[in-house]
Amino acid sequence: MALTRFALRTKFLSETNIGGSNTILKNLTQQCTNTLPKTLFNRSRTYSSSNSLRKHVRTSPFLINNASSNLLSNASRLGVIYCSRGLITEPGMVVPTLHRGMRDQMVDQMKSYYRDNYIANYNKELLNDIPSWLDGMGLKGLAPYFEGKNWEEIIELTSWEQLQDLGIMRPPHRKRLIRNFWILKRFLANEQGIELEEQARDSAHPIPEHNDKVDFVSLEDLPTMLNGIYDGFGYFAPHFEGRNWKEIIGMNWEDLEVLGIRSRAVRSRMIGFFWSVKRALAAENGEPIPKKTRRLGIFQRYDSFRHKNLLHDNNQV
């Protein structure tokens, strides 16, 4: 029965949200500002965006803006909350800063820049500015560790132990650095007609180690922080546009999904890293070490699924 109501609600929204101009409202405590003529039902309450869906909150039918009788009857029957071209804001609400198309475009630009300047043809002009050179790798936050060194010295740091001695603690950072150092070394060797042998260190660390060390210096640059979770996660930076690391580590499983990160494996790695940062902060400040929260139950997971679909209908992700 619940799934039937959900299907009817989705059908109603798709029929009334022509052109993507309508914004779905669902919860309490939110004001909808609208410059168009309005028809407001149930004036005793205002409603918040579905983006901040509170678990198990039930709201009364509510319709804003030029409601015809047939729309009102449909909205009342289905329990739909509807607002046309409303301006919705709420402090602390986790919503995507960028539209999905814009995020995808930014990711493509990041990948194209790396391919054109580091793989297809190495841009040696970048070597004159170490932070910019590292930025193209998604590792600008590690620039302080290389102060006083030129690029010729840096690319000779091809062992994990050497980078660890510099203070670079995260294995994914060291892995990404070493791989890029060898890319440049091979490019320079090819210019001289020399062929370098493949190095095992390019892709793996010979000695297993725990990946729970927190590098607070690297947290200040978003791609660097994400690449420290797992090599390549820096391309998720557009999903967190406009947020700093202190906001990001407070996000949960559902927040990441709302931001457009669909992969369970990716979210699991990110949440694990967020908790390691929280524990490190607590230990540094002498506070009780926080415990992980339980995973959502089946009804909460369904609520999250409904949340995602409402956001999708609303062109928010």
Automatic annotation (TrEMBL):
<dbReference type="InterPro" id="IPR013761">
    <property type="entry name" value="SAM/pointed_sf"/>
</dbReference>
<feature type="domain" description="SAM">
    <location>
        <begin position="128"/>
        <end position="187"/>
    </location>
</feature>
<dbReference type="Pfam" id="PF07647">
    <property type="entry name" value="SAM_2"/>
</dbReference>
<protein>
    <submittedName>
        <fullName>12746_t:CDS:1</fullName>
    </submittedName>
</protein>
<dbReference type="InterPro" id="IPR001660">
    <property type="entry name" value="SAM"/>
</dbReference>
